[in-house]
Amino acid sequence: SLMKQVFYVINLKDATSIHLINNAGMVAPIKPIERCEPEEIIKNQHVNLLAPMLIISSFCKITSSLPIEKRIINVSSGAAKKPINGWSSYGSAKAGLDLFSQGAALDQQEAELPVKIISFHPGIMDTDMQEEIRSSSQEDFLNVETFQNYKKEGKLLSPQRVADVLVSLVTSEPFPNGQVVSVQDSL
Fold it and tell me: Which of 71, 154, 180, 186 has the fewest CB atoms within 10 Å, i.e. is most exposed?
């Protein structure tokens, strides 16, 4: 598997910890569900939910006998907490990722050498994804003007600022195992 190949090149001999950050995500399709094609919904769910689930499962299996600190941070979204018009696929996948993170963390509490797992909401950042959102049509995304205004009014977080919070979180003690953590908790 891909995860086995990754671990093949990692030198764990002197490692005291290992961290996995699942950061892949896509917001598309941005439109009402009745205008979504099945392939768009499937791709969204694969990228935002299924792929992280499979990666986490593989990571937990491969590291089950490693007597080191093991942590997984799943990058989710505030869209997991409340429905947003035109984002039904994205929001539901991220809500699923939050619940999966909590459930997997609970499962791991029973392991002899557990992996600690959290879900992280990075806030509204100035990224390509935000550019994609702002370029949506009003017909497909009723809140497009709100997101355009976030940019105009300088309300978007810089990726560097969010990354700094994430790095701090990865090494935090105590690690908030099984929790959904927001960047806003640290700003």
Answer: 154
